[in-house]
Sequence to fold (512 residues):
Amino acid sequence: MKLVDHFVEGLNSPICLTWELTYACNLSCVHCLSSSGRRDPNELSTDEAKAVIDELQRMQVFYVNIGGGEPTVRSDFWELLDYAIAHDVGVKFSTNGVKIDKARAAQLAATDYVDVQISLDGATAEVNDHVRGPGSYDTAIRAMENLHEAGFGQFKISVVVTRHNVDQLDEFKAIADKYGAQLRITRFRPSGRGADSWDELHPTREQQRQLYDWLVARGEDVLTGDSFFHLSAFGQELPGLNLCGAGRVVCLIDPVGDVYACPFAIHEQFLAGNVRSEGGFETVWQDSALFAELRGPQSGGACTKCSHYDACQGGCMAAKFFTGLPLDGPDPECVLGNGERELAKLEMDTVVPKPSLDHSHRTKPRDRGEPVPLTLSVRRPDRACDSDPLAGEGTRLPAGIRVG
Amino acid sequence: MSTTAAGAGPTAPAGVDDFDADLPYRISGSVSVRPESFGALVYDFHTRRLSFLKTRPLVRAVESLADHPDVHGALEAAEVPAHQREQYLKALAGLAQAGTIQRRDTTA
Fold:
């Protein structure tokens, strides 16, 4: 039996575990895979998080990919980081850089077994900030400068490849080289708010080809999280695991302790259990019915008849699910165009699954067609004829300015 | 994830001249071994390199290195069949080159 077949059937513990520590985030990226923004009141406490780390140590999960939200806005983030490292659980954490000032950069440079991944989705502020919000490019670059100056070594720059930045791959590489960092590019998925920005941001078919060619020509020292295996159908297999690892070698622990098959599948259908339940994470990983199903034989549907099926394995489960395609159907970005054809066939009234959770910032007033809940003042005006709204406040508006 | 496959593959890594199966070896201090059905997952906390021991006899050999005065003894103890010894020595040479196992100092 080949090694990859063992992976298909699942391992005793995950290889690649993503742990999102909080749904709180200072940004509101339009493609956020976890629809983050506001903290969830039910998030794991410091002690509960430490108990999860203890369990990961017992299960010999050698490292975790910590994300969010923005994990560093949790006040106990640095405490949990030190705790994990002290318990043989190495940490790679993703950040937008907001907390990586000179002092933190120096602290990180002095810490073994920690890896930092700065998110950047444009090689220029214009492209980046369109997706990640105003000022986010400068924040990321400042964090990179601080890490570089502190002598951290090779941190990672993590790029989600979109229609807008696929032409900038060489420029991203140049930024990485400038700061002694390693470039990591991953696939954009229609997960979380990514479902809303998918049509605008996902690379076109021509761009998929361009991306594939770039990976073949220049991808040698570029990390991909093995996320572009659907592009292998263009020709030669890309390096790495050409396989969906969801529930097999990969899973997600979300901020409230829910365990999902993969970080891109925050939906009830892919929820395997919760670390707070009896038996903890280990029981979920080893005994959940959902994971058992994912580790069993999968139906590739019509795709199995395609000569490229061995290369792409039907693509990404989450990408299919959140675009409304069946799980045994083609990937929406199938390089042969089968996904696009299937999407075109979907009926107008097809219900495309929505993420189960939404912690987005409420940046717009609630619109529920209800009366605005407002307590009207019962204070009487100073004088019956005094209609100045600031009457009695000592700051009268100059004559000639009308309010309202 | 980024993975490198070291182990009992058919091809020997280049530049393994330093490996000497007549000398004592052990698992490096920064390396952790996790048993799996196929063999084991090996992680080096220092290099952050993940690799695989693709057979159970290879896992047994690696884990018993420290108990034997040379590599041959460990292969013997792991019950590696004679006709596969050459292949296992190549795999161990690869692990030595990657820093997963290292020569043991017996003077202490």
